[in-house]
Amino acid sequence: MSSSTSATMPAPAPSGSPTALYGGKAGKRVTVRDIALAKERGERWPMVTAYDAMTARLFDEAGIPVLLVGDSAAMVVYGYDSTLPVPIDDLISLTAAVVRGSKRALVVADLPFGSYQESPEQALRSAARFMKEAGAHAVKLEGGRRVLPQVEALVSAGIPVMAHLGLTPQSVNVFGGYRVQGRGQSGEELMADAKALEHAGAFSVVLECVPAELAQRVTSALSIPTIGIGAGPDCDAQVLVWQDLMGLTPHPPKFVKKYADLAGEMSRAVRAFADDVVSGAFPTAEHSYR
To answer: Structural domain of residue 226, as residue ranges?
Structure first.
């Protein structure tokens, strides 16, 4: 939270305590109730994308409390130039892998473009598939007041919903590209959308590429957590695509902080392997069976 409000908030649970979201003890899955309680405690927490069982296991064991199987898989897994083309069947398969690879994290699945916009009934069919076939614990969808009927239908059916406002990548063609959203009067519209989504039953809302001051206002106005991505430091949580934060993405957005250089490490490793194969240095007796 911002400095103007943090002084009145309770101290967050220490990392590693049974109640802390980040670094909490392994055991039962994190739930949407845990997310709500973290907001009450003033506790900040991280969310990371995951698309396969191996990385899900690593992030889960690192204490990441929420894993998002984002439609960003369209770009970082399947090589498309936007999130729009990825089919629902592909994301269901990835979600199932992340659920199998994790033990504690709450796994949230993105509803891809075209799988919920038509009607609440379509949204319920799509979300039910993620819950039944993949074992997802919640779903995420993009949009404000225009998707309130979908949010209400899903919540009424017992499906937790994470909302997504600001730069919603599935609407990139309407926005005219990946641009900051919520400046000027449109910021008031975003605030109204956020309040409406909370009232409809969403348990959290992602704020993507919005001015930091607006994100702070929304965070203070809502009783549900905000999850920032390019939305400044005052959101309740932060999320990044794991390939971005690990340094695999060639040209990441401004809001990304690179925490590793996996691209360089992987390039060096595969070239060392190739050189050993060409020279005959690998495999040796140590790596051979008798």
So the answer is: 32-240
